[in-house]
Every structure is written in structure tokens, then in C-alpha cells.
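Now for a concrete sample entry.
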Amino acid sequence: MSKILFTDAQVKKLSKNKWIKNITNKVITYTDEFKYKLVKECENYKKFPQDVFRECGIDPEIVGERRYNNAAKRWRKQLKNTGEIVDTRTTKSGNTLKRELSDKEKLERAEAKIKLLEAENELLKKNELIEMGILTDIKSISNLKQ
């Protein structure tokens, strides 16, 4: 993500553009149509990304050279590899495992998940007892055993 922040005036101006789905002081989300348009028009170096931005009413000076060039490169690569351009900021957050888990690793993960669920259940039970007025002292919660 860029360290350059947009001013409120720039956000207001850019948010009115039909090619921008959403904008904050840190991030711009473009419409899918704009992404495909940019990739198509920049094919075989017919146009440069900044020219497409300018033609679509998005000031390349506001967006920044690094930001629009990286976006164009990312969209071209994604279209080439997957055949579509998808916003992966929410679907690919974190590292994904590229290998199969061993049976031992699967068992360890399942046991950890069971422990977590058991702890959540205990917490919910204790919370319910507090709401019912049976438990009043926080310290007595840690001494409560089922």
C-alpha cells in the first residue's frame, strides 16, 4: 500500500468518478469495467496506463505514477494467469499453505480447534451465569469448574 495519502478534497473529487467504486484516504478501488478497459487499451503498448487514467477522468498526478503502474501490472498479470480480474484483498489475506498437510498436522489442527471451541463454550456458560446473577464476583469465575 502506498504511503501517500489522499486529501479529503481529492477523495471527494475522485469519488464522483464513475470508474471508481470506492475511495478512502489510503485506498482506491476501481470498477471491474475500468480494470478490463485499462488492460485492453494498454495491450501491445497501444497506450500507457496514465493515458487511460486521464481519458477516464482520473488525474494520474493525484493517483501517483507508482500506484497506477503497479495496478496496471497486477491486473495484466491476473488476467493472463486466471482469465479474470478479481479484487483479492479480502480473499487472499494471510499466507496460504501450498502443500498437503500430514495426518499429524491435521490432527494437531483439529485438537487446537477443539480446545478453542471448548474455551469459547466455557466463556459463554460463565457469561450466562453472570447475566443470570448467579455469579457476581469475577474471581469466582476462574474457580468455577464444571
Notes: Helices lie at 8-15, 32-41, 49-55, 60-63, 65-82, 103-132, 138-143. Residues 19 and 128 are 50 Å apart (CA to CA). The chain is about 55% helix and 5% strand. The beta strands are 20-23, 28-30.
